[in-house]
Queue: 2 jobs
Job 1
Amino acid sequence: MIMILDGKLTAKNLRAQLAVEVTELKTKASICPKLVVILVGNDPASQVYVKNKVRQTQETGMVSNEIKLAEETSQEELLKHLHQLNQDSSVHGILVQLPLPAHINESAVIAAINPEKDVDGFHAINAGLLFNGESSGLVPCTPQGCIILAKQYLGNDLSGKHAVVIGRSNIVGKPVAMLLLQENCTVTIAHSKTINLVEVCQQADILIAAVGIAKFVKAEWVKEGATVIDVGINRIINHEGTASLVGDVDYDEVVGKCGAITPVPGGVGPMTIACLLKNTLIAAKHSVEN
Ligand code: NAD
C-alpha cells in the first residue's frame, strides 16, 4: 500500500500543537512570540508566501508584522531595518523573503540578522551549529518538514537508511543532508555535476528531490518501496493553456513504484510554514531563558 504523505494535515496538527505552547508561554512568561517578515519588491509568488506566513503566524496566536519595501530599496536601507529589528526586544523572529532584487547581496543581508532571531536558519552561525550537530534549534524550515514527513512512513528511527538528496543549495539540499546525517542515515548529495544520477538515485531508501526541474525524477530512478520527498515547486502550462504547480518528481509515474510520496502541492510546502512558526516559538522561548 502506498502512503501519500499529507503535508497539509501534518502541518495543521503541528500548528495546533504550537498554538497550545504559545498560550502556555503567554501565561507563564507573559510574552507573545513575534515574527517580522520583510518583503522587498513585487514578486507575485513572494507576496503570496509572505501573506500566508503572516496569516498562519497570527492564527497560531503569535504576533506577525510585514514590512513591505519598494523594489528599488537600497541594501543599506534594508540593513538599517534589520539593525532596528535586531535591537527591538519585542521581536523574536526576523525573516527576509528571498529572492531579493539583484542589486542586493543576499549573503550580506542574511549575515546582518541576529542569529538568535534567524528563524529561517540561514545565518552562518546556525548553519555551522547544524553542521557541528549542536543545533540552536533554528534549523531551516523546509528540511525540517522533509524529515517530519519521512518519519511518518518510516517511523522515528532512520538509522542506516541510504538517503539520496538531489540538490546542494544552502536552503534545502545541504541542510536536509545534515539532518539526515544526524538521523544516522548514509547520505549521498547529488547535484548538477553528478555522474550516473539515475544509478545513484536507484540506491535510495529515502530520495529527496530539491532540483527545481518539473517532473525530473522518473519511476525508473526509484527503488521499489522507497520514501520519496518532493521539495520542488514548479509552475507549468498545461496543454489547455492553464497553469499548475508540479514537483521535481513525476508523481503519476513514481506513485506506482515507491512506498511513500509527498504530493505537490500539499506535501513539503505547508510544512515549511509550520516549521517557521515552530522556529519563531523556539526563538521566543530562548529570549526568556537568556
Ligand atoms: P537551487 O536552484 O538553489 O538548487 C537546485 C539544485 O539542484 C542545485 O544544487 C543543483 O546542483 C541541482 N541541480 C540542478 N540541475 C540538476 C540536474 N540536472 N541534475 C542534478 N541536480 C541538479 O534550488 P533550491 O532553492 O534548493 O530549490 C529547489 C526546488 O525546491 C525549487 O523547485 C524550489 O522552488 C523548491 N523549494 C520548495 C520549498 C518548499 O517549501 N516546498 C522551499 C524551498 C525551495
Job 2
Amino acid sequence: MSLKIGRNDPCWCGSGKKYKYCHQAFDNHYELLRQQGAALPQPMLLKKPEDVEKIKEACAINMAVLDYVAEHIAAGISTQQIDDWVHEETVRRGGIPAPLGYEGFPKSVCTSINEVVCHGIPSETEILKEGDIVNVDVSTIYNGYFADSSRMFCIGQVSPEKEELVRVVKECVEIGIQHVKPWEPIGNMGHAVHQHAKEHGYSVVREIGGHGVGFEFHEDPWVSYTSEEGSGMIMVPGMMFTIEPMVNMGGAAIWTDEEDGWTVRTEDGLPSAQWEVTVLVTDDGCEVVCW
Ligand code: MF3
Ligand code: CO
C-alpha cells in the first residue's frame, strides 16, 4: 500500500481541491527541509483557515480592549484602573483575560512602566504620571483560542529620549514583520529586529522572548530577537507567533523582583520599551492578526 497522493487526487486536507493546486508545494517544501535536518514546527501547531478565523475572534477582543485603554489612559490613573478596564472590557465581550491566574499571576493584564521591562503587576498605589512610558500587555481567551498583543503609551509630554525609544521599538516590530518569510529560519527575523535596535544604540533583552500562540497562550517556538541569521525554526505557512522585542535604552541586563516573583526591571534602571503583535505566516510573507 502506498500513501503517496497523486497530483490530480483530492488533497489530503479536505479542501476538495486537486493535490497539485493545494498542499503539494507545501508538502514538498516541508519534506525537503525535514530531510535536510531543519527545525520544523509540529504539524499540529499549524493553523488551518478555520482555526485562524476562531483565533481572529479572540484577537478582535484583544485589540478592542487595547483601543479602550488607549482612549482612557492618562496621568493620575492607577495601573489597577487599567486592570479593571481590561477585565471588564474583556468579560463584557465574552472573553477571559489570559494572564489572570496564569502560573499564579494575580491580575488580568501586565502594566510595565519606564524601567520595568515586562510582567509589571497592576496596583492601586502605582499612579501614572506625566513623562512615564508604559507598556500594556493584553492577552485574551475566547472560545478556547488565545490572542496576545501589547502597546506602549506615552503619558503626557515625555522626554525626547523616551519618545525615540518608543518609536524605534515600534520600527523594530515593523522590520520584524517584513522579515517573516515562509520557509526561511525565524532567526532572520530576530536578527533584523536586533540590528535596528543596535543601530540606535539600544540593547535587546535576551532571556525573555516571543512565542507561538493560538491554541495555547505560549506554544513553540520560543522566539529570540537577538538571534543569528540562518538559525532557529523554519517559518512555515500556518505558523502563528508573536513579535515582541523588549528593548532597553541602556544595557541588556535585567533582574526579576523576588518579592512579587514577576516584575522584570533593567539592571541599570534605564527605560525599556516593548510593542507586541501576533503574525500568521502565509505563502508570501505574513498577516498581522493582532496588534
Ligand atoms: N502577555 C505576555 C506575553 O506576551 C505574557 C505575560 S504572562 C503573565 O507573553 F502571566 F504575566 F501574564
Ligand atoms: Co506574548
